[in-house]
């Protein structure tokens, strides 16, 4: 997931400085939304309310159109003016992700002693994919490459190394390489959180998201759309929560008589036999008393 890129003179731009607070927030949020969702600067009408929590969102969008920061797309919504002057296209982002994944796979095969796939012509060297674009570019002699989102990595502990002294055998750190969900930079956004709270209020969003990330970090699987995979995870969590809260069918069913009243409890056959034995004993004692 790429960064949303802004010129360092963005706040002092004349068009930006004349915006209201709500329009400014919508404009910045729209750029971030487009970078996150790879929309190439397009904001659909139905999704405008998800972009930013501002009052009178359409009014703020019209203000951006009047300031020539938004362009109206008939039947679609709006397009951010000059979006690709500062931010890459969705196609470029996807191609970069594929290259990073291929480099990561070749790097892992080399670490494991296997034979990696051949490098593409003029391709980047096989390195740990956690190195950012600026460091990779410096190895190719290009010093002004735009930085990519930093990927979190874990620092190996003594337990990871498997020894307690400097003379321990060199550890295999391949299991510490970032997983695809980390390389792609999955993050829980405010829009995703609002959807979850509105759709499944009974789910602990933070706990479920942590489990989601932990699952895909351990499996190393990649999904075409992480937000879609996350939504499915939340829906499954909500279903399981509902099932746990519902009683087992038939466990608390009580038969009613014709008047809607609960009938008296049925006597067991053992109760009937005990009662018959007690009655017989009472009759025998009565007969003995008459005889005496």
- The pLDDT mean sits at 77
The SS-based structural class is mainly alpha
The largest β sheet comes out as: 3 strands, antiparallel
- Helix fraction bin: 40-55%
CATH architecture of one domain: Orthogonal Bundle
What letter string, H or E per element, gives the SSE order?
HHEHHEEHHHHHHHH
Q: Can you give a write-up of this model?
A:
This protein is mainly alpha-helical. Among the domains are: 10-85, Arc Repressor Mutant, subunit A (Orthogonal Bundle), CATH 1.10.10; 89-150, no CATH class; 181-244. The protein has twelve helices and three strands. Strands 1-3-2 form a three-stranded antiparallel sheet, with helices on one face. It is elongated, with a radius of gyration of 34 Å. Residues 90-174, 239-272 are annotated as: Disordered. Residues 103-112 have a biased composition (Basic residues).
């Amino acid at each position: 997931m790429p960064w949303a890129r802004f010129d360092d003179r963005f706040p002092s731009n004349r068009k930006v400085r004349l915006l209201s607070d709500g329009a400014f927030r919508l404009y910045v949020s729209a750029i971030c939304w487009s970078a996150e969702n790879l929309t190439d600067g397009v904001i659909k009408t139905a999704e405008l309310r998800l972009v930013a929590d501002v009052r009178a969102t359409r009014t703020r969008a019209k203000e951006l159109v009047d300031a020539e920061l938004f362009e109206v797309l008939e039947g679609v919504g709006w397009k951010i003016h000059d979006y690709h002057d500062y931010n890459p296209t969705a196609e470029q982002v996807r191609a970069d992700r594929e290259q990073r994944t291929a480099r990561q796979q070749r790097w892992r095969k080399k670490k494991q002693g296997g034979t990696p796939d051949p490098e593409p012509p003029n391709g980047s060297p096989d390195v740990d994919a956690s190195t950012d674009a600026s460091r990779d570019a410096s190895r190719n002699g290009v010093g002004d490459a735009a930085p990519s989102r930093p990927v979190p990595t874990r620092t190996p502990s003594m337990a990871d190394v498997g020894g307690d002294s400097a003379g321990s055998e060199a550890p295999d750190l391949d299991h510490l390489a970032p997983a695809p969900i980390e390389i792609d930079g999955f993050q829980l956004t405010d829009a995703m959180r609002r959807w979850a709270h509105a759709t499944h209020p009974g789910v602990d969003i933070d706990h479920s998201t942590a489990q989601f990330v932990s699952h895909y970090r351990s499996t190393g699987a990649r999904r075409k759309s992480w937000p879609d995979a996350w939504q499915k995870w939340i829906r499954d969590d909500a279903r399981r929560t509902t099932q746990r809260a519902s009683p087992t069918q038939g466990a608390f069913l009580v038969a009613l008589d014709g008047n809607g009243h609960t009938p008296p409890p049925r006597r067991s056959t053992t109760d009937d036999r005990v009662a018959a034995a007690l009655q017989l004993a009472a009759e025998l004692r009565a007969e003995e008393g008459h005889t005496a």
